[in-house]
Inverse folding.
């Protein structure tokens, strides 16, 4: 059984930084042939991708976070990190990590089988 545990969220002021971590466990089939990444969901909004990496190693950032967030991860240890700098109130959301069923992660992660409980990030003055 695959489990994902996100951590590192919290309440910060605009302009501050946070680093999120994700630890996976269990067996994931063809892990080196699939993508992985971070998504977020704000209240009343659809889940959206934040930063994902393709099976080939290309990192994709959403327009809203490019230049501020940095993704890193290691499939061998099933770990991921998201360094978030210059946080803005619009970054407030629950953040989730996942392993995508294909080589490229989708924009919303709909129907993906692996999700953790998420970690809350709140940016407010």
């Amino acid at each position: 059984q695959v489990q994902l545990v996100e951590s590192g969220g919290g309440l910060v002021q605009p302009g501050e930084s946070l680093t999120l971590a994700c630890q996976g466990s269990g067996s994931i089939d063809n892990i080196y042939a699939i993508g992985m990444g971070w998504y977020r969901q704000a209240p009343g909004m659809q889940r959206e991708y934040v930063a994902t990496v393709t099976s080939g190693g290309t990192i994709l950032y959403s327009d809203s976070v490019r230049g501020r967030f940095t993704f890193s991860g290691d499939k061998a240890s099933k770990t991921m990190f998201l360094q978030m700098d210059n946080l803005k109130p619009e970054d407030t959301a629950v953040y989730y990590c996942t392993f995508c069923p294909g080589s490229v992660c989708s924009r919303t992660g709909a129907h993906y089988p692996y999700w953790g409980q998420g970690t809350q990030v709140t940016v407010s003055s």
Observations:
- Strands lie at 3-7, 10-12, 18-25, 36-41, 48-53, 59-61, 69-74, 79-84, 93-99, 119-123.
